[in-house]
């Protein structure tokens, strides 16, 4: 009995092996013809002597037949899909037509692996490269069919694309991810990350963004190039109609300021916007402003005191401080005059003079100590937020 079962299993394995070979060799031909394939039956006879495996006796001879219908089982394995292949020549391509009832049909070149021609029901013909990548068929368009183009050149292009297809797919992934990196989303992330800037600076950034960059808020940083930068700078510079009906001057400073903020947004994105360890934004198109030297010259109004008039200017400031108010009302003249003299002898900027508090004065050191920025003293610290000791000479201290 054991011998008979063993014999049956051997025969079954042989049948399955033959079926697999037949499936691999002939299934393509059957699919081409639209046929269900030949129906094949095979009989397997098994004989054994009853009791032979136990007692060694002849026993009774028995047989059995096994019929296997290959029409039923041959599709259980992996089937190979038929490919329409031909040698690409202009004559052969011109003769190709899409089969009736189909919207398009793919024909493969026998010479260059992966090169195919897509033929639509309307007669359009396009060269494409088709390659399986990670279990998915990837199709890349080369060009439309041109009867004047050389087939050998198309094959060369196909071979190059096949070699670069992994890089192309990776680039497409990064491009898809970078589409979510917009001007506004990056600006908001940058504002959240900049913890040390003052509230006044933060408000100034937001005001600049709202007034000049809101029109490109939803634009992907990867889709904005240097030509867009130049155009944006020029459009912001143009005079605008004021609410009172008059035209403004050219907004040169505003244009510089807006593009400066956009450059900061790009620099932040280059460092922070990454996918699987790779930068989504790799360049800063605002750099074209420096390369082409097209920043507007900053001509702020400046007050200068000629060296031969410096002494009289100082004397006048002191006189104002000593004379006091001309009327019996509070006056800011003396305080302003003292502030002007203090800036003159220390180099402190007007915005920083206004931040000085009595608590900052260290008489022992004869210095003004600007404290490090905290949430409580944000409005009364220097722009960089760091502690700074301003040592005073005799005139400034007095």
Verbal overview:
The chain is of the alpha+beta class and 398 residues long. The chain has 14 helices and twelve strands. The strands form four sheets. Strands 3-4-5-6-7 form a five-stranded mixed beta sheet, with helices on one face. Strands 10-11-12 form a three-stranded antiparallel beta sheet, with no helix packed on it. The protein has a two-stranded antiparallel sheet with strand order 1-2. Strand 8 and strand 9 form a beta hairpin. The longest helix has 32 residues. It is elongated, with a radius of gyration of 42 Å. About 16% of the residues have low confidence.
What's this model, at a glance?
With 398 residues, this protein is an alpha+beta fold.
Provide key terms for this protein:
alpha+beta, 13% strand, single chain, 43% helix, five-stranded mixed β-sheet
Helix and strand element order: HEHEHEHEEEEHHHHHEEHHHHEEEH
**Outline, from the CA principal axes?**
elongated
* Class of secondary structure makeup: alpha+beta
Q: Gap between N and C termini, in Å?
A: 121 Å
The total count of helices amounts to: 14
Largest sheet, strands/sense/barrel:
5 strands, mixed
């Amino acid at each position: 009995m054991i011998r008979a079962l063993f014999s049956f299993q051997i025969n079954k394995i042989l049948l399955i092996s033959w079926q697999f070979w037949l499936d691999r060799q002939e299934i393509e031909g059957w699919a081409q013809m639209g046929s269900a394939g030949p129906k094949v039956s095979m009989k397997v006879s098994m004989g054994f002597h009853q009791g032979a495996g136990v007692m060694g006796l002849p026993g009774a001879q028995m047989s059995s037949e096994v019929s296997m219908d290959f029409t039923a089982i041959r599709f259980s394995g992996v089937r190979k899909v038929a490919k329409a292949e031909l040698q690409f020549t202009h004559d052969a391509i011109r003769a190709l037509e899409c089969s009736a009832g189909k919207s398009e049909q793919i024909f493969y070149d026998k010479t260059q692996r992966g090169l195919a021609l897509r033929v639509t029901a309307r007669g359009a013909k396009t060269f494409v490269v088709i390659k399986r990548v990670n279990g998915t068929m990837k199709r890349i368009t080369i060009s439309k069919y041109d009867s004047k183009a050389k087939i050998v050149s198309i094959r060369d292009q196909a071979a190059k694309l096949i070699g670069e297809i992994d890089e192309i797919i990776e680039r497409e992934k990064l491009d898809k991810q970078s589409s979510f990196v917009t001007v506004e989303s990056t600006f908001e992330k940058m504002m959240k990350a900049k913890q040390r800037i003052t509230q006044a600076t933060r408000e100034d950034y937001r005001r600049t963004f709202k007034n000049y960059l809101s029109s490109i808020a939803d634009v992907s940083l990867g889709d904005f190039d240097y030509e867009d930068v130049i155009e944006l700078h020029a459009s912001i510079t143009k005079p605008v109609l004021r609410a009172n009906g008059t035209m403004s001057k050219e907004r040169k400073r505003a244009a510089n300021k807006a593009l400066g903020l956009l450059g900061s947004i790009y620099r932040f994105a280059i460092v922070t916007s990454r996918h699987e360890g790779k930068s989504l934004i790799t360049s800063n198109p605002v750099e074209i402003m420096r390369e082409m030297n097209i920043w507007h010259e900053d001509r702020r109004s400046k007050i200068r005191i000629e060296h031969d008039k410096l002494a009289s200017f100082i004397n006048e400031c002191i006189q104002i401080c000593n004379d006091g108010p001309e009327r019996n009302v509070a006056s800011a003249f003396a305080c302003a005059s003292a502030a002007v003299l203090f800036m003159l002898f220390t180099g402190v900027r007007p915005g920083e003079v206004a931040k000085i508090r009595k608590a900052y004065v260290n008489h022992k050191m004869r210095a003004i100590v600007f404290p490090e920025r905290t949430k409580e003293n944000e409005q009364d610290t220097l722009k960089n937020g760091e502690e700074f000791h301003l040592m005073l000479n005799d005139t400034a201290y007095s």
